[in-house]
Amino acid sequence: MSNIRMDKILGSRRFSNYWWASIVLMGGLGFFIIGLSSYFQQSLIPFFNTNNIHFLPQGVMMTFYGTIGIFISIFLWYTIILNIGSGYNEFDNNKGIITIFRLGFPGKNRILKLQYNIKDIASIKVFIEEGLSPKREIYLKMKDKREIPLTKVEKLLNLSEIEQQAINIAKFLGVKVEGIK
């Protein structure tokens, strides 16, 4: 049995982020080009008639919304390219250390690397909240009452998967699990 467990964390390179970045870019470009078409009073999109759109006020608003959409899309693609939020959770029983590593935005805090002593872990806490915006999270609960999140931001795991993941981490670390009923 290995004394090191590593859980990879998927960052912003998820299908849903690629999907939304693409959709927002296409929508933003569409609005922007239609706004420009109304300004130049010439259809810049061959299959779309823009003669009925006046530059004031419709064209200005279309150009504005298009510009905002393009900027939002650039931000989304930026987070995808930099893979914001990706990293790993490493549990090393040999050294007695837990390492939480994540990538952030460029700057002095680009790399987040937190290390905790396994002896300081009181338990693994499972937090489940159902409702309109459900949450299913796993935390490292420290002896000094701090709670450090371990779960991925990916898709919502079903109850048995999140419980099994928490139980596996707790067994590996030799601590109890709380929050599972």
UniProtKB/TrEMBL annotation:
The transmembrane residues are: 20-40, 60-81
Task: Give the family this protein belongs to, as stated in its UniProt record.
Answer: Belongs to the Ycf4 family.
Q: Which UniProt keywords apply?
A: Membrane, Photosynthesis, Plastid, Thylakoid, Transmembrane, Transmembrane helix
Q: What is this protein's record name?
A: Photosystem I assembly protein Ycf4
Known function: Seems to be required for the assembly of the photosystem I complex.
Indicate where this protein resides in the cell.
Cellular thylakoid membrane; Plastid thylakoid membrane
What organism is this sequence from?
Answer: Dasysiphonia japonica
Swiss-Prot/TrEMBL GO biological process terms? photosynthesis
Q: What is its main location?
A: membrane
